[in-house]
């Protein structure tokens, strides 16, 4: 009884968890959710019959059931072997097919729609995220603002160690690596604030490496850009050198201007480093 009550209490605590990928806010996240739910249903086709059969066998072959036949010499059944091996084999085939088709359909490098997307350049640092809007000429730290209903094309890299960019409700976790670029395309279909995070350990400041993604109306996005341009900070070489220094739990802020070609320079300069180690808080 104590175990049952403990389980009920733990289940109640789960009500405070965010639905994340189950509450998809865009086509990519919706595709990821469908893959996960389809895979879950296929695995239930094995789990549920096995549990049911276990309970049925335990009940039928109980000591008090005189109708159950005792067969100590039984060793083989072709029909049972066919059942035992065919169901898992079919499950693996279906799971593989769903993963193959779904992962190719949701290729992060594939553009969404035919309209020009919003271009954003993303840089992972210790321990914060830098977002550069090359067409608008502004940048932000730990805060990504996008217009809802418009495709977003992200070009990502790392200025330090390998990291991972993930916004569960918008979909497709993708890695960032120094000296390399990766691409991610997604779209927010409704306005709202979505939580983003680093999904790859990158040192002692990793737990606080969170970001906020605000999907707003086109008018609100235009006003945000104008507000960023009215700020005081400029992201030039000196400002970037300061940004490159490790820092934790950084509050979001913006830059009103960005040095031309900064993202490509980050990719090029980070690629020349030969030692990439995560800072562990002990000076290593």
UniProtKB/TrEMBL annotation:
<keyword id="KW-1133">Transmembrane helix</keyword>
<dbReference type="InterPro" id="IPR010514">
    <property type="entry name" value="COX_ARM"/>
</dbReference>
<keyword id="KW-0472">Membrane</keyword>
<dbReference type="InterPro" id="IPR008972">
    <property type="entry name" value="Cupredoxin"/>
</dbReference>
<dbReference type="GO" id="GO:0016682">
    <property type="term" value="F:oxidoreductase activity, acting on diphenols and related substances as donors, oxygen as acceptor"/>
</dbReference>
<keyword id="KW-0249">Electron transport</keyword>
<keyword id="KW-0449">Lipoprotein</keyword>
<keyword id="KW-0813">Transport</keyword>
<dbReference type="InterPro" id="IPR034227">
    <property type="entry name" value="CuRO_UO_II"/>
</dbReference>
<keyword id="KW-0564">Palmitate</keyword>
<feature type="domain" description="Cytochrome oxidase subunit II transmembrane region profile">
    <location>
        <begin position="13"/>
        <end position="110"/>
    </location>
</feature>
<dbReference type="Pfam" id="PF00116">
    <property type="entry name" value="COX2"/>
</dbReference>
<keyword id="KW-0812">Transmembrane</keyword>
<keyword id="KW-0560">Oxidoreductase</keyword>
<dbReference type="InterPro" id="IPR011759">
    <property type="entry name" value="Cyt_c_oxidase_su2_TM_dom"/>
</dbReference>
<feature type="domain" description="Cytochrome oxidase subunit II copper A binding">
    <location>
        <begin position="115"/>
        <end position="227"/>
    </location>
</feature>
<dbReference type="InterPro" id="IPR045187">
    <property type="entry name" value="CcO_II"/>
</dbReference>
<dbReference type="GO" id="GO:0004129">
    <property type="term" value="F:cytochrome-c oxidase activity"/>
</dbReference>
<dbReference type="InterPro" id="IPR006333">
    <property type="entry name" value="Cyt_o_ubiquinol_oxidase_su2"/>
</dbReference>
<dbReference type="InterPro" id="IPR036257">
    <property type="entry name" value="Cyt_c_oxidase_su2_TM_sf"/>
</dbReference>
<feature type="transmembrane region" description="Helical">
    <location>
        <begin position="35"/>
        <end position="61"/>
    </location>
</feature>
<dbReference type="GO" id="GO:0005886">
    <property type="term" value="C:plasma membrane"/>
</dbReference>
<dbReference type="Pfam" id="PF06481">
    <property type="entry name" value="COX_ARM"/>
</dbReference>
<comment type="similarity">
    <text>Belongs to the cytochrome c oxidase subunit 2 family.</text>
</comment>
<dbReference type="GO" id="GO:0009486">
    <property type="term" value="F:cytochrome bo3 ubiquinol oxidase activity"/>
</dbReference>
<dbReference type="InterPro" id="IPR002429">
    <property type="entry name" value="CcO_II-like_C"/>
</dbReference>
<keyword id="KW-0732">Signal</keyword>
<feature type="transmembrane region" description="Helical">
    <location>
        <begin position="82"/>
        <end position="102"/>
    </location>
</feature>
<dbReference type="GO" id="GO:0005507">
    <property type="term" value="F:copper ion binding"/>
</dbReference>
<protein>
    <recommendedName>
        <fullName>Ubiquinol oxidase subunit 2</fullName>
    </recommendedName>
</protein>
<dbReference type="GO" id="GO:0042773">
    <property type="term" value="P:ATP synthesis coupled electron transport"/>
</dbReference>
<keyword id="KW-0679">Respiratory chain</keyword>
<keyword id="KW-1003">Cell membrane</keyword>
């Amino acid at each position: 009884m104590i175990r049952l009550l403990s389980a009920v209490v733990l289940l109640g605590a789960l009500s405070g968890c965010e639905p994340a990928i189950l509450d998809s806010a865009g086509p990519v996240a919706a595709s990821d959710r469908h893959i996960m739910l389809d895979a879950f249903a296929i695995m239930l086709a094995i789990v549920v019959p096995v549990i049911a059969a276990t309970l049925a066998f335990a009940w039928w072959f109980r000591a008090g059931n005189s109708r159950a036949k005792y067969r100590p010499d039984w060793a083989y059944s072709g029909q049972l072997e066919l059942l035992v091996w065919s169901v898992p084999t079919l499950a693996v085939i279906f799971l593989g097919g769903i993963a193959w088709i779904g992962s190719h359909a949701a290729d992060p490098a594939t553009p969404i729609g035919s309209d020009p997307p919003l271009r954003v350049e993303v840089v992972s640092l210790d321990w914060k995220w830098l977002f550069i809007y090359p067409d608008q000429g502004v940048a932000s730290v730990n805060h990504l603002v996008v217009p809802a209903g418009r495709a977003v094309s992200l070009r990502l890299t790392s200025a330090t160690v390998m990291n991972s960019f993930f916004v569960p409700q918008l979909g497709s976790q993708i890695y960032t690596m120094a000296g390399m670029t990766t691409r991610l395309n997604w779209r927010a279909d409704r306005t709202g604030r979505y939580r983003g995070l680093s999904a790859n350990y990158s040192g002692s400041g990793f737990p606080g490496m969170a970001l906020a993604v605000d999907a707003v109306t086109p008018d609100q996005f235009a006003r945000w850009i104008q507000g960023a341009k009215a700020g005081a900070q400029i992201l030039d070489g000196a400002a970037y050198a300061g940004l490159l220094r490790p820092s934790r739990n950084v509050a979001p802020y913006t830059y009103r201007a960005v040095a031309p070609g900064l993202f490509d320079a980050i990719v090029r300069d980070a690629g020349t480093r030969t030692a990439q180690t995560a800072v562990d808080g002990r000076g290593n």
